[in-house]
Amino acid sequence: MTTTATVTQESGDARRASTHATDEARELAGSHILCEALVREGVELLYGYPGGAIMPFYDALPAYPRLHHVLVRHEQAAAHAADGYARATGKVGVCVATSGPGATNLVTGLATAYMDSTPVVAITGQVGRPFIGRDAFQETDVLGLTLPITKHNFLVRRVEELADVVHEAFQLARSGRPGPVLIDVPKDVQFAKTVYRPAASVRSIELYRATRVPQPAPEAIQQAARLIAQARRPVIMSGHGVILSNAYSELRALAEKTNIPVITTLLGLSAFPVDHPLFLGMPGMHGPAFVNRAIGVTDLIIGVGLRFDDRVTGKVSEFAPQAQIIHIDIDPSELNKVKPAIVPILADAKAALAALAEAVEPGDHREWLSELRQWEAEEQERARRLSRPVPYPTPTDILDAIYEVTDGEAIVVSDVGQHQMWTARFYKWTHPNSHITSGGLGTMGFALPAAMGVKMGRPEATVWVVAGDGGFQMNIQELATLRDEGVEIKVAIMNNGYLGMVRQWQEFFHQRNYSETPISSPDYVKLAEAYGLTGMRVERREEVQAAVQKAMQTPGTVIIDFAIEAEANVYPMVPPGAAITDMIIESE
Amino acid sequence: MGLNMTEQAVISARAGQADIPPGSARLYTLVLLVDDRQGAIDRVVNVLRRRRANMRTLVVGPSEEAGVARVTVVVDDAEVGVEHLSEQLRKIVDVRQVLLFPAGQAIERELALVKVSCTTANRREIIELGQHFGAQAVDLAPETLTLQVTGRGEQVEQLLERLQPYGIRELARSGCLAIARDE
Question: Rounded to an integer, what distance in angstroms lies between the CA atom of residue B123 and that of residue A175?
Answer without folding.
Answer: 64
